[in-house]
Amino acid sequence: MSDLNTLFLSTRGRIGRRTYWLALAVLFVANLIASLIPVIGAIAALTLLWPAACVISKRLHDMGRSSWPAIGITATSALFGLVAAVIGLLATNPATVGVALAMTAVPVLLGGLVALVGLALVIWAGVAASDAGANRYGVETLAFPLRF
C-alpha cells in the first residue's frame, strides 16, 4: 500500500514508461467509473487531478525534467473545473441561465486549450526516453506496485 501512496500521492521520485502508462490507466478507469455518478463523479474528477499530477511529475523526473509543467496543468484544470461547476449551478436557476450562457465561451475555449496542452504533455512524457542512471531526482525508478 505504501508503494501505491508513493505512486499516486507524492511528486517525488521517478517512474519508467510502463509504470507511467499503467498508473494513468488506473486513474482513467477510476475517473470513468466515478463519472457514472452525476455529482460525485465531478468531485472525483477534481480529486483525481492530484494523483495524475504526481504520476506525470515522476515521469518528468525520470526524464530529468522539472515537474512544474504537470503541476501547472493540474492547477489550471482544477480552476476550469471549478468555473464549470459555478456555471453549472448558475444554469440551474431560470433567472441566471442567460448569465451562465454568457460566461461559457471563454472558459470553454481556454479549457480546451489547456486540455490540448495537457494531452500533449501526457503523450510526450509517455514516449520520451528516460535518463540512464541517476539524475538529480533519484537513482532508480519506482515499479508499478501491482502485478498483472
Provide key terms for this protein.
mainly alpha, 70% helix, single chain, 7 helices, 148 residues
Total helical segments: 7
Structural class: mainly alpha
Radius of gyration: 17 Å
Strand content: under 5%
Give the total of beta strands: 0
Order of helices and strands: HHHHHHH
What's the mean pLDDT score?
85
How far apart, in Å, are the first and last alpha carbons? 16 Å
Largest sheet: none
Shape call: elongated
Low-confidence segments, ≥5 residues, pLDDT <50? none
Helix content: over 70%
Count of distinct structural domains: 1
Describe the structure.
The protein has 148 residues and is an all-alpha fold. It has one domain. Helix 2 runs antiparallel to helix 3. The longest helix is centred in the middle third of the chain and has 24 residues. The model has no long low-confidence stretch (mean pLDDT 85).
Q: What does this entry show, briefly?
A:
With 148 residues, the protein is an all-alpha fold. 70% of the residues lie in helices and 0% in strands.
Please write out the topology.
Blueprint lengths: L1 H8 L7 H18 L3 H10 L1 H14 L5 H24 L5 H7 L1 H23 L21
